[in-house]
Amino acid sequence: MTDQITAAFYRGDKTFEVMQIAPEAPAAGEVQIEVAYCGICGTDLHAYLGHMDQRIGFSRILGHEMSGRIAALGDGVDGWAIGDRVVVRPLDPGEDNPAIQRGHSHISHNLKFLGLDSQGAMQQLWNVPAFTLHRVPENVSLRDAALIEPLAVACHDVRLSGLKPGEDVLVIGGGPIGMLVAMVAKAAGGKVTISEINENRLALASKLGFDTMNPTKTDPVAEIMQKTGDKGADVIFEVSGVQPAVDLMTEVGATRARIVMVAIHAQKPQIDLFRFFWRELQLIGARVYEPEDYEKAIASIAAGEIDADAMITDIRPLAEINEAFDELGRNPTAMKSLLKISEQAL
Ligand SMILES: [Zn+2]
């Protein structure tokens, strides 16, 4: 085994320390992955900004949107071989509880999120439980494979929405997750409009072939009603986390529209419950993903349904992690930034 590897530790105050450390061998039931690429998630950005210090502490290695190759196998691991190209579904359900018993281990009450509650992928060798692995097909590059985790979020959201071909879809919020939700919804046959206030993101959304609107510049309700022949949107994804979006989602919903709550609302928003009653709207919570969403995400990338080149706007070596986070926080044209973790990454 390599004697020293590079790892980036979050130290608080918008700072990572990039260090050489001695790697640990994988424990029983674990595999060791040589990480190729790791994307920076919105959650990682929150952590960097100091919003999660209590949860993650000051010696945390972040990172869960990764791709890599298996470098070593712990005892008792079957079905995997050294060199296999993989991504990790970064959820450890932990001890038994009612959510697991009912088949919802992805939102287990004791869920441990790898890369937040334990060390993550912003290091060259990462040990993870073998049950978290998914195989990456040969025709998907390890660079593009770093998008599988956020894409699996989008696949979960669209699956839970029950979207049917031909339905009118509104995605509120055109950041990385919103854009991926829009791509998955379009591939599923939805007629997608993206609502977003950042003009750079609107320009990208139009370039990708989506209808767009800026709710600060037009009357978004009138626009959706006009587009849908006064019916309203059949499926609405709330991906922005702000009060005006919560107002919009109830105002533009068609009769029995499904509203999928993807965003994390830190504050309790005001919700027009009368509209839920009046139009028989349905609200669906959607958090992370299940194994089938990962498989769907992998198949969508392999089938070329997702424009990875449009999504990946920056790639830097792990040594430049501080610059990468700083830039991502400030650059309004950024979508997804990747860190190249291993020099020999393909
Ligand atoms: Zn993520």
Overview of this protein structure:
The protein has helices at residues 42-48, 53-56, 98-101, 142-145, 148-161, 176-187, 199-207, 220-227, 243-251, 273-279, 291-302, 308-311, 321-330, and strands spanning 5-12, 15-21, 30-39, 65-73, 85-88, 91-92, 112-113, 125-129, 133-135, 168-172, 191-195, 211-213, 233-238, 253-261, 282-285, 312-317, 336-340. It has 346 residues and is α/β, with parallel strands linked by helices. It is globular. Helix 5 crosses helix 6 (176-187). Bound molecules: zinc ion. Zinc ion binds at residues 41, 43, 64-65, 149-150.
> Which small-molecule ligands are present, each listed once?
zinc ion
> How much helix, percentage-wise, in residues?
25-40%
What is CATH's topology name of the largest domain?
Quinone Oxidoreductase, Chain A, domain 1
- Total E-strand runs: 17
- Span from first to last CA? 21 Å
What share of the residues does DSSP label as strand, in percent? Answer: 25-35%
CATH superfamily of the largest domain: Medium-chain alcohol dehydrogenases, catalytic domain
Structural class: alpha/beta
SS element count, helices? 13
Give the structure's gist in a few sentences.
With about 350 residues, this protein is of the alpha/beta class.
